[in-house]
Amino acid sequence: VSRQLKEEIRRGFARLEDPLAGLLAMLESSSDWKGKGHSLGYCITTELQLWIKAHPAVPQSGTKLKKLQARVLGLLSQCPTNLLDPLISIYQLHTADRNYLLEHVSHLYLQGNYKEAAMLSIKLKLQPDQDVEKMCTPLLLQDKANLVEEYVAEYPELQRKLLQTLDTWCEPSFNIRDVIRPYQGLSKYKPEKFNRKVLSKLIFRLLERFNVDSALCPNVINQRHLRTLNYLFYKRFVEKTMTEENWADHIQSTVGENRWLQGHLVQSLLRHCDTRGAARWAQHCRVPPEMLPQAVAEELQKLHIQDRGEEVTKADNYEASKKKDYYQLPIPRENIHFLQTWEETLQCWEKVLQAGQVVGVDMEWKPSFGMVGKPRVALLQLALKDEVFLLDLPRLLEQAEAEGEKEKLPHFIHMLYSDAAITKLGYGMSGDLSSLAATCSALKDTEKQMQGVVDLLAVDKQVDGLSPEHSHEERGVRQPEKGLSLLVQHVLGKPLDKTEQLSNWEKRPLREEQILYAASDAYCLLEIYERLCKDPEGFGLGSDLTESLVGKQSKKSRAKKQLNKQEAPSPSGQEFQGPRTEPSRPPAPISPQEFSVVCDNMLQGLGRYLRCLGVDVRLLDNEEDHRKAAEIARQEGRVILTSGLPYQTLRSQVGEGRCFSVNCSQKAKEQALQVLKHFNVQVSLGDIFSRCQ
């Protein structure tokens, strides 16, 4: 707004005997302010708000103000959002009679103006005196979940009531049509957005956002556990990519003493095992005998306690003979150290924090299987040329807190990651560091301070011939290699044995297989780096390996880098990040035509926006399960774009760094910029609308 117009508006107010009544008369007699954007009516209203602050004697009181309030309430339902706050402030609606305000909102609701009724309630803080189910149901039917979140945001009691209501709707026996029936003629009704699957996602989002105890929603929690149970059976008996011990750990922690889940466990056992096998696992998982079918119960009686450990399923028999097919640690077992005390850890630090050191870094955490909350790192692996250290983070953090020295671990991590003289090797470091920040809040800025980091995930795009199709050999039930395992196979000749990847890493003591897996995951990074340094051109990389991996530097800094010193340039914390303020740059930029993604169903706006920029986009339909994205990503070599809780589920099903979590609170354009920057996609004018719309 021009200064001249502002001055004219203020002079106009000064000439009016009653500016508040004058503004109201103007708004009632025109309609330009009803549209979106900064109309003349909006400019005049906001200027009056500022003018009143400078002239405190102006505001009305008593009967005259009540009459003005009654008139302004009639306008609020037609107001664009940007006018609500100024009008509420000018006419002091917070001081109006509460019952009168509630009655007005109720009138809006009965007229079918559900969105307007909710927004006005939020602005006037009327929620505690309203029925949360009644106010939120039509909004959910109209796919206005964000408004529902805003409605309960400041009221924990309403959050709990809403979650309990939503969970009741997700009960298998509940008829969801009973909720819909009273709103048959609802405008903008989106039935495809109102079903158990969508409601379940919303519940998990609210549980996480408001930090509410998930026990409040037993129906969705049970359904999520059931999906986990089915997934574990698939991994064990169909894919055959989980060891017996690993599988048993997860089955026990998933089912626990929940009778409903125990019933489903028995049914799944009967589908996948013979009667004796089902009885043995029922015994192992402490399923009450009365829940078992007669044949299984009879078999259970025949079993002796010592039988538990003696039988091994046929699926495991191939493992010993197949060890030769996998990457093997080249160091003796006694050189792998599991550290649970600070005395041991300090000795580890002395070896790791030395100038010129090259360190393979990896982290493990218990799979969340889509449950609430971010994963917490349970194990930090640091590999040196002759030994590997496995740090028991939960135990070390607990000890440090008990001794009043919380800063011990953050201090070490910061020293490691910020020292340019120590080369840190990782694979998909950004995901590891975000989990580390969730484990210890003092580490949330580690990524910004990183120096001397080489993220080998960058090799995925650059090493010649590296694709899942090249790795698939006829090995019975073996799945095609992907992610780090595929890189290890291509560079070192054999893939990683990933059967322990989905282990319960929080359970102590760790099994021997877990210890060997964790050590291999970190140590293989050293061997890959060494092999690529010796022959970068043989793998389709530039002669300066560090430049290929982390991006071009200035000539001055590049001249100083010598590979025989094994120095890596400053940081690429996330794979394919956009330009930073530091001199180093990400890997060579890619065009939108070279970038193919699959967008989860909550990111359809982002998908359409990226398609407009020339990106190859597949969109998940509203009714499709999140896991469909992983299936498409594996089949077509796409990157998954998702948000919130599905990220943890999906990232475990594709190669490291092939799944990216987008900020769902941003608009499509901002999300697109975030994605383009992260993967260093450079859009030219010719790319825009280059794909059929």
Automatic annotation (TrEMBL):
This is MUT7 Exonuclease. Residues 553-563 have a biased composition (Basic residues). It holds the Pfam family Mut7-C. Coiled coil: none annotated. GO terms for molecular function: 3'-5' exonuclease activity; nucleic acid binding. SMART domains: 35EXOc. It comes from Calcarius ornatus (Chestnut-collared longspur). GO terms for biological process: nucleobase-containing compound metabolic process. The gene is Exd3. Residues 565-575 have a biased composition (Polar residues). Gene3D superfamilies: Ribonuclease H-like superfamily/Ribonuclease H. PANTHER family: 3'-5' EXONUCLEASE DOMAIN-CONTAINING PROTEIN, EXONUCLEASE MUT-7 HOMOLOG. Residues 336-537 form the 3'-5' exonuclease domain. It comes from the Eukaryota. SUPFAM superfamilies: Ribonuclease H-like. Keywords: Exonuclease, Hydrolase, Nuclease. Residues 550-591 are annotated as: Disordered.
